[in-house]
Design brief:
Bound molecules: adenosine-5'-diphosphate, magnesium ion
CATH architecture of chain A: Orthogonal Bundle
CATH superfamily of chain A: MetI-like
Oligomer: heterodimer
Helix content of chain A: over 70%
Largest sheet of chain A: none
Number of domains of chain A: 1
Helix content of chain B: 25-40%
Structural class of chain A: mainly alpha
CATH topology of chain A: MetI-like fold
Largest interface: A-B, 19 and 26 residues
Strand content of chain A: under 5%
Strand order of the largest sheet of chain B: 6-7-8-3-9-10
Distance between the termini of chain A: 47 Å
CATH architecture of the largest domain in chain B: 3-Layer(aba) Sandwich
Radius of gyration of chain B: 25 Å
Distance between the termini of chain B: 54 Å
CATH class of chain A: Mainly Alpha
Strand content of chain B: 25-35%
Structural class of chain B: alpha/beta
CATH class of the largest domain in chain B: Alpha Beta
Shape of chain B: elongated
């Protein structure tokens, strides 16, 4: 069947499966790094905002403006602009290794905003209660903000992973590897339409799995 | 002056808003006696929440001082403030239980980081659950509880640090009348059994008359009247205080009602308000006997405030015109009764 409907995919089967693994690898590594950074930024934004538990205008403004700045740069341009820095940090600007840094920079502003919004969904009365029962700011972050928004955080993380999968495909265009790269090389440059179609199907499957898993986890975390 | 467990001295609080400075508390002087139930009543927006939040440092006065025992609350550093909040705990109108935690986890949240063993925490929680009458809710989640049950759990949480003071910000305002009474009974019991000083801010007169010993009336950020509840109720000086008292009294009858009572010649519609704890009946039988008049009680409204009677009657005096007049005069002469002729027949 594969030979009949996807002859060019079958012909490059190994490269195809490799590119799937590469995409998954990029999503996981960039996603994990970005999660840590975004969680930190999201927490700082919520804590330092005007009615936060430790307001700090300067810190909030710097992070807020930086995020807005990076969000306004189209990703493809950001990748190119980052190439010198990427080379310094990752040792190379191509291949999977070269994609992680631009992917993290590309997704973190979005991810931080998602986390900020999930944390801000915590009922302000609960935060006030945390203060009234004598918890420190750190304890409030841990036991109330994070604990009570875990379901929201899961939902936001799911949305972000889906966006990140999109970014990995774009990164492929500039020699990054993964399904995007595979689609460009065979589907576009060699005009093999079945390759493009196969890439779409695989991406669709990955996105669906992510979304189903995300919803499932988010629902079980709700009370 | 500074004799209470909590004292406010010349406390002012303003908020800077986009529309300008909002002066929310104005020259508040308050002394809250140890072991008492102190009520603050005022309309929504009067500044009640701001006032009560100054006590545990959630809000910082713009100037003046709030003291707890010999500590000046608004000058404490953050660490001492966190300690203070173990001794002054708080419950809220919306209960504010953590939806993602079980009842046991909710109750023990204030001591989660204090290094108690699992067994110690669990035994404290069970004792408190017994105290608030919900022993079987240990592993339940807040979403499965009714409003009254949620407030009981919030009270248990507030007690886990053995506080000296319990602050209640509209703690019963989200509850139906019956549940309100059961929570008030619980608060009264805590006050009596453990000597916890309770401060209640509310817009409901019913709460004040049910359990408070002392009261302050807050109007647009100023305290306009304060004192012992019975004293304030029996002889209110301020218009606002009278308004609040009337919200729970049915002695204030409408003109409509007055019009429906058809008085025959000689009859008078009279309101009697009692001002000390004496019983009511002798007066009525007195005038019936002495002046040979009939006193028909139309409305009676007597309540028990701090174990003393307070309230009055609306009566129709009926009889010979001269007799009715002398009976009225007799009533006017009684020191402890306020007499008001609402209507008389032409
Ligand atoms: N953090 C705040 N910033 C600005 N204004 C506030 C703040 N908190 C309260 N206020 C204002 O203070 C006034 C009194 O509020 P509050 O103390 O909540 O009254 P109450 O509890 O009696 O309804 C209101 O006009 C409110 O808008
Ligand atoms: Mg309020």
């Amino acid at each position: 069947m594969l030979d009949k409907y996807f002859p060019n995919v079958a012909a490059n089967w190994q490269a195809f499966t490799e590119s799937i693994l590469e995409t998954i690898e990029m999503v996981i590594i960039a996603g994990l790094i970005s999660f840590v950074v975004s969680l930190l930024l999201g927490i700082i934004l919520v804590v330092t905002q005007q009615d936060g538990i430790s307001p700090n205008r300067v810190v909030w403004n710097i992070i807020d403006k930086l995020i807005n700045l990076f969000r306004s740069i189209p990703f493809i341009i950001l990748i190119v602009a980052l190439i010198p820095l990427t080379t310094v940090i990752s040792g190379t600007a191509i291949g999977v290794r070269g994609t992680i840094f631009p992917l993290v920079i590309g997704i973190t502003p979005f991810f931080s905003r998602q986390i900020e919004s999930a944390l801000n969904d915590t009922n302000s009365g609960l935060i006030e209660t945390g203060e009234a029962i004598g918890l420190t700011n750190f304890q409030i972050i841990r036991s109330i903000y994070l604990h009570e928004s875990i379901s929201g955080l899961t939902r936001m993380t799911t949305t972000t992973i889906v966006s990140l999968i999109g970014l990995t495909a774009i990164v492929g265009v500039v020699g990054g590897g993964g399904l995007g790269n595979f689609a460009i090389q065979y589907g576009y440059q060699q005009n093999q339409f079945d390759v493009t179609l196969a890439c779409i199907i695989v991406l669709l499957i990955i996105v669906t799995i992510v979304q189903i898993l995300g919803t499932l986890i988010s629902e079980t975390l709700k009370h | 002056m500074a004799t209470g467990v909590i004292n406010f001295k010349k406390v002012n609080k303003s908020f800077d808003t986009d529309e300008g400075v909002n002066h929310v508390l104005k020259d508040i002087d308050l002394s809250i006696p140890k072991g008492k139930i102190f009520g603050v009543i005022g309309y929504s927006g009067a500044g009640k929440s701001t006032l009560i939040r100054c006590i545990n440092g959630l809000e910082k006065p713009t100037d003046g001082t709030v003291t707890f025992n010999d500590q000046i609350v608004n000058q404490l550093d953050h660490k001492s403030l966190l300690n203070l909040r173990g001794k002054i705990s708080m419950i809220f109108q919306q209960f504010n239980l953590m939806p993602g935690r079980t009842i046991a986890e909710n109750i023990s949240l204030p001591i989660k980081y204090q290094g108690f063993s699992k067994e110690e925490v669990s035994s404290k929680v069970r004792k408190l659950l017994d105290l608030v009458g919900l022993p079987d809710k240990y592993s339940a989640y807040p979403s499965s509880l009714s409003g009254g049950q949620k407030q009981r759990i919030a009270i248990a949480r507030a007690l886990i640090n053995d506080p000296e003071v319990l602050l209640c910000d509209e703690a019963t305002s989200a509850l139906d009348p019956e549940t309100t009474d059961s929570i008030l009974t619980l608060l009264k019991q805590l006050n009596k059994d453990y000597g916890i000083t309770i401060i209640i801010v509310t817009h409901e007169m019913h709460v004040i008359e049910s359990i408070c010993d002392d009261i302050a009336v807050l109007d647009k950020g100023s305290i306009v009247e304060q004192g012992n509840v019975y004293a304030v109720f029996s002889d209110p000086k301020e218009e606002l205080t009278k308004k609040f008292i009337n919200t729970t009294s049915n002695l204030k009858i409408s003109q409509e009602l007055v019009d429906t009572i058809n008085l025959r010649p000689g009859q008078k519609l009279i309101r009697l308000s009692y001002r000390d704890g004496e019983t009511v009946t002798p007066l009525i039988s007195d005038i019936s006997r002495q002046f040979n008049v009939n006193a028909n009680i139309i409305i009676g409204d007597i309540k028990l405030i701090q174990k003393q009677l307070l309230g009055g009657l609306i009566i129709v005096l009926d009889g010979d015109k001269a007799a009715v007049d002398s009976a009225e005069q007799y009533l006017q002469q009684q020191k402890d009764v306020e007499v008001e002729v609402i209507n008389h027949a032409r």
